[in-house]
Amino acid sequence: MLPLIGVGVIVLGFALRFNPLLVVVCAAMASGLAAGLGPLEVLAAFGKAFNQNRYVSIVWVILPAIGVLERSGLQERARTAIRAMTAATAGRILVAYLLARQLTAALGLISIAGHAQTVRPLVAPMSEAAAENQAELDETTRDEVKAMSAATDNVGVFFGEDIFMAIGSILLIVGFLDQNGLIVEPLHLSVWAIPTAIAAFLVHGARLLLFDRKLSKRRAPRPEATA
């Protein structure tokens, strides 16, 4: 039971709001030492896990790159480009992103977009800039625009990924049904995921357009030009 000390370290570290990465590393080190491993053996286990899970290294490459782009004015450039488009609205931008997210997820390209990669640096600022063209925004409305941007990404990837038959969720369903005597081909599940994805697009698309109408009703009256 002594190796479970790592769980206590995680609970205590998160309760004290320490850096999550530092807490996890300390918890792993504590569990490893409690299990009789030396510091070098624990470090070797970290290295092995890092090499076996290549996507971890991709995160370390992408996040600094996004940080540099944001520091160089990526969000400001995105806002400026959208403000110049009078026909752009928050709802239209998010509907277009929803469609693109579903189509790419249906092809298995799940990591091509996401909250860190696209929503925070691009989609949310663009939607916020479009909403500013529609109405005067208070902090609550700005938070609603950001929430809609995040929700659009969630809906797009969640209902789009099941169309790709090699995705983990489809394989999990196939394996579960097979264990219970029901033989189902992954392709069949993928095909039947298409109507669900279309329904999700229509429902969330309607929500976005209604949100557009809500923003338009908040438009402040423009002062009349004086002679």
From TrEMBL:
InterPro entries: DUF969 (IPR010374). It holds the Pfam family DUF969. The chain crosses the membrane at residues 58-74, 155-177, 189-210. The keyword Membrane applies. Keywords: Membrane, Transmembrane, Transmembrane helix. This is DUF969 domain-containing protein.
